[in-house]
Every structure is written in C-alpha cells, then in structure tokens.
C-alpha cells in the first residue's frame, strides 16, 4: 500500500534502505503524504 500510493519512496537514485534510520525531513514527508492520501 505504501509504495503504490507513493507514501513511502526510496532515497535518491531509487535506493530503498529499510534498515537505515529516517531523517526528520524524510519522516515528515512520509507523514504528509500519508495524511494527504487519507484525506483525499
């Protein structure tokens, strides 16, 4: 669900790093996309 809706995307270059920690900006962007998806 998260990938198909665009809530969770990879890092630059299309990399996906599931074991890395997310930066504050990355977390904020995911929360924003989640809220926008739920409200629409």
Model description:
By secondary structure, this protein is an all-alpha fold. It has 1 helix and no strands. The chain has one helix spanning 24-39. The protein is globular. The two termini are 15 Å apart. 0% of the residues are buried. The mean pLDDT is 75.
Lay out the secondary structure:
Elements: H1 24-39
Offer a concise description of the structure.
This protein is mostly helical and about 40 residues long.
Distance between the termini: 15 Å
Q: Work out the number of β strands.
A: 0
Percent of residues in helices: 40-55%
Low-confidence blocks of residues? none
Apparent shape: globular
Radius of gyration: 10 Å
Order of helical and strand elements: H
| Number of continuous helical runs | 1
The computed structural class is: mainly alpha
- Main beta-sheet annotation: none
Descriptive keywords:
single chain, 40 residues, mainly alpha, 40% helix, 0% strand
């Amino acid at each position: 669900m998260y990938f198909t809706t665009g809530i969770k995307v990879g890092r630059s270059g299309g990399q996906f790093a599931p074991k890395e920690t997310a930066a504050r900006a990355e977390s904020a962007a995911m929360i924003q996309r989640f809220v926008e998806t739920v409200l629409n």
